[in-house]
Amino acid sequence: CLATLIIMLVGDTYTLINYVSFINYLCYGVTIIGLIVLRWKKPKIFRPIKVNLLIPITYLAFWAFLLIFSLYSEPVVCGVGLIIILTGVPVFFLGVYWRNKPKCVNRLIESITCWGQKLCFVVYPQGGVAEEE
């Protein structure tokens, strides 16, 4: 959100749409790659919808063409889009991957979560602060 607000203040809406569309198409392609890998590595798991592999492979070919064309035609926009995606990596490692965090870090994350929930008027987590009457 912070990066989007900064881009909105500095740039124009067209540039923001380009950043978001590049990020979306990159995520769609990675999802399709994940689908193909799962079909190959775990063919026996239950799938409520199963399509012929020709469909995702064809989609992936068009996706690769469009992504390469985007990287060629607007490398700066694509680079900024990748930087925006990579800003989530430290958050992932701090919040999800790092399991044995010190208590002070857990308290900091809980207070930030609680503050964000109060700011956005959302539900408190279970075991959190009770509602004041």
Give a written overview of the molecule.
The chain is mainly α and 133 residues long. The protein has one domain (1-120). 74% of the residues lie in helices and 0% in strands. It has 6 helices and no strands. The protein has helices at 2-10, 13-41, 54-73, 75-86, 88-97, 103-120. The longest helix has 29 residues, at 13-41. The two termini are 31 Å apart.
Question: Key terms for this structure?
Answer:
single chain; 133 residues; mainly alpha; 6 helices; flat; transmembrane; AAA1 protein; L-amino acid transmembrane transporter activity; membrane; AminoAcid_Transporter
Secondary-structure blueprint:
Elements: H1 2-10, H2 13-41, H3 54-73, H4 75-86, H5 88-97, H6 103-120
Helix pairs in contact: 2-3, 2-4, 3-4
Mean pLDDT: 83
Distance between the termini: 31 Å
H and E string: HHHHHH
Helix content: over 70%
Note the overall shape: flat
InterPro entries: AminoAcid_Transporter (IPR050598)
Keywords: Membrane, Transmembrane, Transmembrane helix
Transmembrane segments: 16-39, 51-73, 79-98
Protein name: AAA1 protein
